[in-house]
């Protein structure tokens, strides 16, 4: 290449062309198809001029993968990894390498979507069912959900469940024991403030004297104490209160379960089952309760049902209680949860099995006993006589002890009066105990681990009283007793992965969910130990790498959104909504406007919007949409004016959930502002804004960003997510804080919305890498190409299916909705049939029946190449022809490939085939399918059967026998 310049050869923009699917030639062809002369022309036709950014974003040049990784490595190396004994709900753990590489680092697991299409998601549904079973066995409860966001929010959910379920309707009081982890108290207090519940924090034994609707206890306590809670629980229940116990999963391997003590709810974090601390998250919380409260359980539940062949098959149970559907009647606003991390924890239990877990738990406990015995020998006194893994040591000169520890590279818990806390974990070794002896008792302490151990073996320690030893069996199901060699485990993980369709197979065009590329270079830093091994409460000077990364990413997001401040704390989009609404509420309160409590929400809104509004005790008033899917301006004006005295805010999505850039958006903001309200702009559709417009420019006051949509964090099969919020300056003083580590001087004393100060910090490097490798120019290009891809699909399908909503010049934004209702009318073929038939063609269905029932919402994203779009279009067109055969009566209404979809190998290999179409058409309807066939592993699943016969634990082996 004699004529290339050096900078061309350096391939500075290389990542941009890797991230964006279509190349120059395909782009030109697609532009021709949609009838635009250039990308600029298309954007001009599509995005209203009045909201276009006047200048380019100031985000720097794109960097190559190698450059960006090297730069991030420098940032990461600013983190100092001390040995952590801080505890407080976060413990070091060995992620089994077979799980690390084959789950956490495997796109087959991390790029999957939430399992709304269960026929192509049986693998992760099985892993989640295992997670529920682990939860049930260890907590001793009847019913468990498939993960919540973190321990603090799970505790807050327990409080609201107590409010709903308690028969003590007179009381407005919720009691929290003072040995609950402090950050949990902080998160629960925030939630209580919003609902107007009164909170009393006191010694656990004081609960009996209170008249409460519910109480939260911790087991073992935050300073390590193990005690029998049976009598306290009974005392609260006697007065019709509900008792939640926050428990430590590892301790429950050895301890009598809270369920056996009578608890109504048991919750906690599954982090120490193989998930790195990661400076606070993401981790899966578990939540279990009594069968009687099943309709009040927050989050998703995986249940066993059967498919059309009568075989057992898994699905999300009671989906009609999904928060999307219940809107303002929802129990909670949880949507994205922590699926990937729950799966890791469940695999940890599968790999170790009951015996392996007992060995781990017993080893941790023995080390704690040895440490305690040695220190007592040396004259130390311990705060408690009973413990599992955490001891609290009274020290005369705490400062000196902490300094000696720091000098030895050790973090002890430092927030206790006159004492230090030492929490041991799975990674603790003899050398660690030696070192702890030296730090506390000085060089030449003369303590001998083997001698101390021998005494304990002979005499016992009494640190777990006999009545609190677990006697019930755990993990007796076959799945926990089968895969203990690495070969077996590897194959088990792979066998489940094979059942699931993820982005590494084909495009997942989930409208509103932006299933774009999760580039490998973005994912690599997530498992660097510099990011994984940091405790969220480590001293700030050890977390400089994280702090720099959070600051820089925050600055970039400020630039992208046009806001003034960012909070990284919310660990999902819905949590961002909650945090943003809290900021709005506190802002109004600060101005003497506490009576403002009405939240306007257009009828097209995502279900989390009204669900979040009810979490801050706002009244939802629905604003109509017109026939074009836009906000009905007359209705908005009337309602805003009528309610002006009490108007708190509007929650609006932009571009609208109908996939259109509403021309009136700035006017909508003005109207709400004129009547004293604030504008919450749901940022889930940022993929249609970045670089072209911004929420700040449009005129809104606060938004959440779904980093797990627009900014490349993978969906993980239904989580993790990060939902940072951006705010204009006037709302900044009301952003979340944290009571253990302050987040920012300007928000001091505000409540927390998540357990960790910076939420799910360990996946922020993904978004950091994305922005670094794309630069301002690349990000803008991505938005433009997302719009082109969507318009291309809309154009290609439009002669065959009606495209429901269009904006100016008949353009759609980054997604389009196709209407299947007329076809249903003429043929009886449902949107469900089309969705399942797409599986036969190797595709995941688009978003079904949101925001409009009977439709599909397609969002291809910029990452899909033209070839993949064409395959999808081909499938949709073939399906249209199939529908025509049902319409014309050529195929029977009940015996056709749509109605029977998806087709499985069991169908094709069945010696009987009694259909009016042949096997080839069933499974290989077009030639391209044959090259890369994906086989759903179960036939269509019977939803009604599953909900009528609710089974949310692992079925016994017999069920699987034919
Ligand atoms: C995804 C989404 C949300 C909720 O985000 P989660 O991370 O799932 O809580 C809210 N609004 C819209 C429009 C969304 O698409």
TrEMBL record:
The glycine cleavage system catalyzes the degradation of glycine. The P protein binds the alpha-amino group of glycine through its pyridoxal phosphate cofactor; CO(2) is released and the remaining methylamine moiety is then transferred to the lipoamide cofactor of the H protein. It catalyses: N(6)-[(R)-lipoyl]-L-lysyl-[glycine-cleavage complex H protein] + glycine + H(+) = N(6)-[(R)-S(8)-aminomethyldihydrolipoyl]-L-lysyl-[glycine-cleavage complex H protein] + CO2. One of its GO terms (biological process) is glycine decarboxylation via glycine cleavage system. This is Glycine dehydrogenase (decarboxylating). Residues 782-903 form the Glycine dehydrogenase C-terminal domain. The modification N6-(pyridoxal phosphate)lysine is found at residue 709. Residues 17-440, 464-752 form the Glycine cleavage system P-protein N-terminal domain. The glycine cleavage system is composed of four proteins: P, T, L and H. Its EC number is 1.4.4.2. GO terms for molecular function: glycine binding; glycine dehydrogenase (decarboxylating) activity; pyridoxal phosphate binding. Pfam families: GcvP2_C (PF21478), GDC-P (PF02347).
């Amino acid at each position: 290449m004699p004529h290339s310049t050096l900078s061309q050869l350096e391939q500075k923009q290389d990542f941009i062309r890797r991230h964006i699917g279509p190349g120059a030639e395909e782009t030109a062809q697609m532009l021709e198809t949609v009838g635009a002369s250039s990308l600029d022309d298309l954007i001009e036709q599509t995005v209203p001029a009045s909201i276009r950014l006047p200048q380019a974003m100031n985000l720097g040049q794109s960097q190559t993968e190698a450059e960006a990784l090297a730069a991030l490595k420098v940032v990461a190396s600013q983190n100092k990894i001390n040995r952590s004994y801080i505890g407080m709900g976060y413990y070091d753990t060995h992620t089994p390498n077979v799980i690390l590489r084959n789950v956490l680092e495997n796109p087959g697991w991390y790029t999957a979507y939430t399992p709304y299409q269960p026929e192509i998601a049986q693998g992760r549904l099985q892993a989640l069912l295992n997670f529920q079973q682990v939860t049930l066995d260890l907590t001793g409860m009847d019913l468990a959900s498939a993960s919540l966001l973190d321990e603090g929010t799970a505790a807050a959910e327990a409080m609201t469940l107590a409010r709903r379920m308690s028969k003590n309707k007179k009381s407005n009081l919720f009691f929290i024991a003072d040995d609950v982890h402090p950050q949990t108290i902080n998160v629960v207090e925030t939630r209580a403030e919003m609902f107007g519940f009164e909170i009393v924090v006191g010694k656990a034994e004081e609960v009996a004297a209170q008249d409460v609707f519910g109480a939260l206890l911790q087991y073992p306590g935050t300073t390590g104490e193990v005690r029998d809670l049976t009598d306290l629980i009974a005392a609260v229940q006697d007065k019709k209160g509900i008792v939640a116990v926050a428990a430590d999963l590892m301790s429950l391997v050895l301890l009598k379960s809270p369920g056996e003590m009578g608890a109504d709810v048991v919750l906690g974090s599954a982090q120490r089952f193989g998930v790195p601390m990661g400076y606070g998250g993401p981790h899966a919380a578990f939540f279990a309760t009594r069968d009687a409260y099943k309709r009040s359980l927050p989050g998703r539940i995986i249940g066993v049902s059967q498919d059309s062949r009568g075989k057992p098959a898994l699905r999300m149970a009671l989906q009609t209680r999904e928060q999307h559907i219940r809107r303002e009647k929802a129990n909670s606003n949880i949507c994205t949860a922590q699926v990937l991390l729950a799966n890791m924890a469940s695999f940890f239990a599968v790999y170790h099995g009951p015996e392996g877990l007992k060995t781990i738990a017993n080893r941790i406990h023995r080390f704690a006993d040895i440490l305690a015995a040695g220190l007592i020998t040396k004259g130390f006194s311990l705060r408690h006589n009973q413990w599992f893994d955490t001891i609290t040591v009274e020290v005369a000169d705490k400062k000196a002890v902490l300094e000696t520890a720091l000098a030895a590279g050790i973090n002890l818990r430092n927030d206790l009066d006159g004492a230090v806390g030492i929490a041991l974990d799975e990674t603790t070794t003899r050398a660690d105990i030696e070192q702890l002896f030296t730090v506390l008792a000085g060089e030449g302490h003369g303590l001998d681990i083997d001698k101390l151990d021998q005494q304990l073996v002979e005499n016992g320690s009494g640190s777990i009283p006999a009545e609190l030893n677990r006697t019930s069996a755990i993990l007796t199901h076959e799945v926990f007793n089968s895969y203990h060699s690495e070969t077996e485990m590897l194959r088990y993980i792979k066998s489940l992965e094979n059942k699931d369709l993820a982005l590494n197979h084909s495009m997942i065009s989930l409208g509103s969910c932006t299933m774009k590329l999760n580039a490998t270079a973005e994912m690599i830093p997530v498992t660097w130990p510099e990011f994984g091994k940091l405790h969220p409460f480590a001293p700030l000077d050890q977390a400089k790498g994280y702090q720099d990364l959070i600051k820089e990413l925050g600055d970039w997001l400020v630039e992208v959104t046009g806001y003034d401040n960012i909070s990284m704390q919310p660990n999902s989009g819905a949590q961002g909504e909650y945090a943003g609404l809290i900021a709005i509420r506190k802002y109004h309160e600060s101005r003497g406007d506490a009576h403002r409590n009405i939240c306007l929400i257009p009828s097209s809104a995502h279900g989390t919007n009204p669900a979040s509004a009810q979490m801050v005790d706002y009244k939802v008033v629905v604003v109509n949409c017109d026939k074009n899917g836009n906000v009905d301006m007359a209705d908005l004006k009337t309602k805003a004016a009528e309610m002006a005295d009490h108007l708190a805010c509007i929650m609006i999505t932009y571009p609208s959930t109908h996939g259109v850039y509403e021309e009136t958006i700035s006017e909508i903001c003005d109207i709400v502002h004129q009547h004293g309200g604030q504008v919450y702009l749901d940022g889930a559709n940022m993929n249609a804004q970045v670089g072209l417009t911004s929420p700040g420019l449009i005129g809104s006051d606060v938004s959440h960003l779904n980093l797990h949509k627009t900014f490349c964090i993978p969906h993980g099969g239904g989580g993790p997510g990060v939902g940072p919020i951006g705010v204009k300056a006037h709302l900044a003083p009301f952003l979340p804080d944290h009571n253990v580590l302050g987040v920012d001087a300007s928000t001091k004393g505000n409540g927390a919305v998540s357990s960790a100060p910076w939420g799910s910090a360990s996946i922020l490097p993904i978004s950091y890498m994305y922005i670094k490798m794309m630069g301002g120019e690349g990000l803008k290009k991505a938005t433009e190409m997302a719009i082109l891809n969507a318009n291309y699909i809309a154009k290609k399908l439009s002669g065959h299916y009606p495209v429901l909503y269009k904006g100016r010049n008949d353009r759609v934004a980054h997604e389009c909705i196709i209407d299947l209702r007329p076809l249903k009318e003429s043929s009886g073929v449902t949107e469900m049939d089309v969705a399942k038939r797409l599986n036969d063609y190797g595709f995941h269905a688009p978003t079904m029946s949101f925001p409009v029932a009977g439709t599909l919402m397609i969002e291809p994203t910029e990452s899909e190449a033209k070839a993949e779009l064409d395959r999808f279009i081909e499938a949709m067109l073939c399906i249209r022809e199939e529908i025509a055969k049902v319409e014309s009566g050529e195929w029977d209404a009940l015996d056709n490939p749509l109605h029977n979809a998806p087709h499985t190998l069991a169908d094709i290999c069945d010696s009987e085939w009694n259909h009016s179409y042949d096997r080839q058409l069933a499974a290989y309807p077009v030639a391209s399918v044959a090259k890369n066939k994906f086989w759903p592993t179960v036939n269509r699943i019977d939803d009604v059967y599953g909900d009528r016969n609710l089974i949310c634990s692992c079925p016994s082996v017999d069920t699987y026998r034919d």
